[in-house]
Amino acid sequence: MKNVLTVLILLLFGIDTLFADKPYGDVHIGIARGENSYESINDKGEVYILGVGLTKVFDTGLYLGGSTDIEYIDIHTKQTRGENNWGLTLDLRAGYQINYLSFYAIGGLKAIGDDEDYVGFGYGAGVEWRLCDTYLLSAEYKVYDLSGSRIDYDYTTVGMNIKYLF
Predict the structure, then answer these.
(1) Residue 36's domain is classified under what CATH number?
(2) In terms of CB atoms within 10 Å, which end of the chain has fewer, N or C?
């Protein structure tokens, strides 16, 4: 009987330890300021973000995650105001978490569509602050090297997200 009780306690402790370190998912919304580097176009505008993500923080503090976002981009050029594009991103994150604060590097893929589609890889950095058990606030800086059939340009965003964890 004593051995059975010991095995049950060890199993329960092991299961609790396993689930205490489980990954968490999130749904996030955000806003960013976007700007491209192509001189003759000089697009700037707001980027409205809706996305989902998955993150794992290990006992050592190692932070690994990924997310995918759908973006609505409201563009302001020198000639026009209010052109609209759609974007899609797939980002991977790796970094370190200290208490409620996480720092991470970002690598990803972005696609933007208007009268022509642009696709490219990018990089960036971010920081997250855990507000409570179910909400995070993040700030990110990203640069993507986008290519289309007519032009190639860098697309830079600086933005904030609020994340609901599940």
Answers:
(1) 2.40.160.20
(2) N
* CA neighbor of 158 nearest in space, from 39, 67, 45: 45
Calpha distance 24→4 (Å, rounded): 33
Euclidean distance between CA atoms 148 and 90, whole angstroms: 18
Question: Helix H segments across the chain?
Answer: 2-20
39 phi/psi in degrees, rounded to 5: -60, -45
In a domain, 76, yes or no: yes
Structure-token match 């996305």, residue found:
51
Residue range 76-111, pLDDT digits in tens: 665 555 567 889 999 999 999 999 999 999 999 999
Q: Which residues pair with 126 in a beta bridge?
A: 104, 140
Q: Whole domain around residue 63: which residue ranges?
A: 23-165
DSSP 8-state secondary structure symbol assigned to residue 132: S
User: Closest Cα to residue 89, out of 43, 135, 50?
Assistant: 50
147 found inside a domain: yes
Q: Is residue 60 part of a domain?
A: yes
